[in-house]
Design goal:
- Helices cover about 10% and strands about 30% of the residues.
- The chain has one domain: Gamma-B Crystallin, domain 1 (Sandwich).
- By secondary structure, it is mainly beta.
- Strand 5 and strand 6 form a beta hairpin.
- It is built from one helix and eight strands; from the N terminus they run αββββββββ.
- The strands form two sheets. The protein has a four-stranded antiparallel β-sheet. Strands 3-8-5-6 form a four-stranded antiparallel β-sheet, with no helix packed on it.
- The structure holds calcium ion (CA).
């Protein structure tokens, strides 16, 4: 059974010193895809399980999260281009934010060929 390791995620993100990736005091809920903050949340596993990172703005995700994100919920209020490579290079797919027409949730990035590929977003 997969469990959320929120503490580990917080430590990992803090240790990586990732500009633009901020951890909130209101953590996302494992399995529901509820981001809990105004961000693009990225989970380690499909269906919003495992560790979660919070990406608030354009950034290269850092070594810890590089090629690690398997599901996403975008509640940032804006779309993001999610690039395969650092520095906004390589192929990308665009996440739509949660709005009246979209859940903003992408539970399994394998379905669109982007599992474990995210390296930068803007
Ligand atoms: Ca990549």
């Amino acid at each position: 059974m997969l469990r959320t390791k929120k503490t580990l995620a917080i430590v990992a993100v803090a240790a990586a010193g990732i500009a633009g990736a901020v951890v909130s005091a209101a953590p996302a809920s494992a399995g529901t895809g509820d981001c809990g903050v105004r961000a693009q949340c990225g989970w380690e596993h499909a269906d919003y399980n495992g560790e979660v990172g919070y990406f608030l703005q354009a950034t290269t995700v850092g070594s810890y999260w590089n090629d690690r994100v398997s599901s996403i919920s975008n509640t940032a209020g804006r779309s993001f281009r999610n690039h395969n490579d650092i520095n906004y290079l390589g192929d990308y797919w665009t996440s739509t934010p949660k709005n009246a027409a979209s859940s903003g949730k992408y539970g399994n990035l394998s379905y669109i060929g982007y599992n474990d590929k995210l390296s930068s977003l803007r």
